[in-house]
Amino acid sequence: MAAAGFEVEPAAGSAQKMTAKSSSRHGRCIQDRLNGARGAERQNMKQRLWKAATSLLLILLIALGARATFAWNQEHKMRADLVGLVPFLNETGNIAYSLAAGHGFSSPYWQETGPTAWLTPVYPALVAGVFRAFGIHTAHSFFAIVFLNILFSAATCVPLFYIGKRVGSLAVGAGVAWLWAIFPNAIIIPYEWVWDTSLAALLMATILWATLGLADTASVRAWCGYGLLWGFALMTNPSLGSLLPVLLGWAAYRAFQQGRLRLSRPLLACGIAVLCCVPWTVRNYLAFHRFIPLRSNFPFELWLGNNEQFDEQSQIVPAADPERAEIRNYIHMGEAAFMQDKWRRAIAFIETHPRLEITLFGRRFVATWTGMEKPIEGFRDTESPLVRLVLITNTLAAIGALCGILTLIWSRNAFAFPLAAGPIVFPVIYYVTHASLRYRHPIDPVVLLLTAIAIAAMFEKRRGRAEVASLPC
Question: Alpha-carbon dihedral of residues 354, 360, 362, 367, nearest 10 degrees?
């Protein structure tokens, strides 16, 4: 019995061990299942977040909301009786008033001065249409035109999203669309300026999108549409025309490389763009008896940035109210003679002040890309958080654009040339005349696209280093 008793204990111990092992395995199995479920849940969550982050519809809604919120906030800071008047007291608003009142395309200043070619017709005609629908110089007209500007600005997310996908990846496309949705310039300008600025930014992004696609097709319809798009852009903001030969030339060269080019295609596109401008050019010739292809105001803009007021040693005493004095000169001389006089004065100043011109060129370059000629002093002296935000974001965007261009060149990306052309070519005219963030805004979509490309390349590089570091020795 003793022997039998001794034999029972090992059997019981063995059973207990087997039970413990079974319980342990069962516990590990449950834990593995729980871990797997948690991992799957995390993976699903990441997929949902990624889907939301790359949703163009969500980005568009955020862009619209940001711009509408800013406009609502700023409108409440303006006196109610001035909302329908003050925003339209510029050349666009004055010409639109003349159109709506039945006086034709005339009078860029707040007086009847006859026909003008100060601006091209698209945007003033749009504002005139708003005046006719909602009343001249009414709050409803102002809200309507701001709403249109907001739509133009938010819609720019669409071409940017698809350009980013084509040039880089879905992450680049979503990234640049998000950058544009929250970019301070793109939020502020639709409200602050009754001007073609937001529409011009949309057109620039759309033209770039069309350019990249045009190089891959020999369709006559596509090339004709491209010419029409350029014609509309030139009639909206002629400054965009500086990029026409660059982008059209690149599209033709790319098509030639891929064996799709027929010389008639780019010639057809160029011809259609020019034909879109011919009626306006003929109208200008009949009104002024001289050849004015698009706009007449370049001599005035050149003079604004190159005159005796910039010469600290000048003995000429400026008028007490320079703007009013120039309006009087314009009314007295007429537009054609006024522009001739400004051209003569500006060229004379440039020729007699070569060293000062180099300094002014540098100051305008800095102002174009940061927002101020002296951004550090401006950042330090201002008490406005919004001004500081604009200075910081524009400086970062300029650096990002430069990094994006270098990234494309370094990687020998096929799209480096058309993407770099905007920031390099477009602002040159403003380095020579005078600078403003509003003038640069048409190429801001390209600037942010290049920034998104640079950011994506940086993250790709860091990911590559992490993967290398995780490899076993």
Answer: -170
CB 208 within 8 A of CB 163: yes
Where are the domains positioned within the chain?
52-457
CA distance 372 to 364: 8
For the beta carbon of residue 3, count every other beta carbon within 10 angstroms. 6
pLDDT digits (tens, 9 = 90+) for 116-151: 999 999 999 999 999 999 999 999 999 999 999 999
Task: Report yes or no: 137 and 97 within 8 Å, Cβ to Cβ.
Answer: yes
Distance in angstroms (rounded) separating the CA atoms of residues 169 and 167: 7
Angstrom distance (rounded) from CA 422 to CA 443: 6
As a whole number of angstroms, the distance between CA 186 and CA 193 comes to: 11
Classify 75 as helix, strand or coil: helix
CA distances from 312 to 308, 318, 345, 353, 450 (A): 8, 12, 17, 12, 39
Note the pTM of the prediction, 2 decimals.
Answer: 0.88
**Residues in CB range of 119: below 8 A, 6 or more apart:** 91, 92, 95, 108, 295, 297
**Residues contacting residue 148 through CB under 8 Å, at least 6 positions apart:** 126, 130
First to last CA, the chain: 63
Please return the burial class of 470, using the count of CB atoms within 10 Å of its CB with bins 0-12, 13-18 and 19+. exposed
Instruction: For 399-415, give one letter per residue: b (16+ CB within 10 A) or e.
Output: ebbbbbbebbeeeeeeb
Closest CA to 202 of 467, 463, 446: 446
- Residues facing residue 106 across a β-bridge: 115
CA distance 146 to 152: 10
Percent of the chain with pLDDT over 90: 70
Closest Cα to residue 437, out of 195, 205, 232? 195
Asked whether 158 and 72 are in contact (CB, 8 A), the reply is: no
Taking a C-beta distance cutoff of 8 angstroms, is the pair 146, 422 a contact? no
Q: Which residues of 244-265 are buried (b: 16+ CB within 10 A; e: fewer)?
A: bebbbebbbebbeeeeebeeeb
Per-residue pLDDT reduced to its tens digit, 406-450: 999 999 999 999 999 999 999 999 999 999 999 999 999 999 999
Q: Name the residue among 299, 279, 188, 189 with its Cα closest to residue 234.
A: 279
pLDDT at 315: 53
DSSP 254: H
